């Protein structure tokens, strides 16, 4: 359940810490005091889209924290899957910070989290039922979800949706294989030509770079040969000169002769000997180098490079890209060549999956029809209790082609007056009627709900008198095995609550502030009297409030 809510810098609420109890809690206050802001804050902490407009004027950031305790095993399992650290008391602290600049931040038990993680947890933590959700009743798409929840058909629906999803995937695969014979023949010819052209080239990765290097050597072979012969002559000498090697040898001998007289000459001699060894190595390496101009080899290289260049224009800029194109073409070729065999397997799979989906859809439809009368009967009974005795409530189930929800379209129909034909809710229901119809449905579904906290936002819209009292009794009934929070303007409902919070605003130094405070018995009497009679509270109104609390 929701044990604590902490709000900071949200609209007119500078800071509010709200402790909540199990059972039935009401929140009351004058119009504009900030009741709807609390609902906005709860929406924010559960991952709903937020706006920077929520941030209090003058503040840079706003934040909301919600502490949930007594978590169900299902929630604990999801938290473990999400790698959220678990507390010893099995509690969950959700924090969300809204920034005027940059993205909002989310945390679960102190660990960073995403908005999608909050949204995954939200339906298991609490449900908010407000005017907005009541108006969702005008959309027939939502009606089937209520019927499926009542009949506990969600697991069967998931089985069907899995089969239907697989059916669509196979249909898409079959569509990808659709190709007329002429197009198929043209595609096969092109792929076979491309595969043959690349395969016959027998390409190797890095071949182009190696050929360019070899071509440059052959093209410059004469220059290389002249340079090599010149350096060999400089090193070894010719008929006109001794050469560097001989000269260096003589220099070394001269230095060594006098090394005994000057110690520094020994080091010079050592350096000259090392230089001689290096020059001898270089001379030997030059004698091993032989470069010849080979016009035939050059022509072969040019032709090979031209082939690689032409292939690169068609299939990719490098040997690796060309070979990857070859691999992809071979896969496509094989796929088309074996497409008939693949098509046959897919068609067989499609028919089998289609029969499975049809079977599940029919089973789902039959069970929906089986529970629809009981659902209609139970809702009508609740509507009768909520001072709508003449209202007929029916379900219209229409058979349609397979889609994501099965083969049914479900729509709620009502007749507000006896003898009148039943019509869709959107045609005849008023705002107050929608609120009570929603409450009736939620009461019927209360045993099927997995959440421990229900929040009703102004479910009393458009009602008064005995009807308001009946709504209050239904909310009290719903709170017997869970936490129920209700924002209300009616004394009849507020009097029936186990706990009462007052939302009040005041002005200080030209700024508006909102605070939330729990009320004791005397405070509840004062607040009920205010709701009954307005700002000027009389003794009679206080007595009426006291009587309502005693009666409750």
Description:
This protein is of the alpha/beta class. The protein has a domain at 198-334. It is built from 20 helices and 15 strands. It has helices at residues 35-45, 73-81, 115-125, 131-136, 140-150, 154-177, 181-201, 207-219, 221-236, 244-257, 263-288, 295-315, 319-337, 339-385, 425-428, 431-445, 465-478, 491-494, 521-533, 539-551; strands spanning 2-10, 13-19, 24-28, 61-68, 92-99, 105-108, 111-113, 126-130, 392-403, 406-415, 423-424, 453-457, 483-487, 499-508, 511-518. The longest helix has 47 residues, at 339-385. The two termini are 24 Å apart. The model has no long low-confidence stretch (mean pLDDT 87).
Poorly predicted ranges = none
Q: Order of strands side by side in the largest beta sheet?
A: 2-1-4-5-6-7
Main β-sheet, in a few words?
6 strands, antiparallel
Task: Give a count of the beta strands, DSSP E runs of length 2 or more.
Answer: 15
Amount of helix: 55-70%
Number of helices: 20
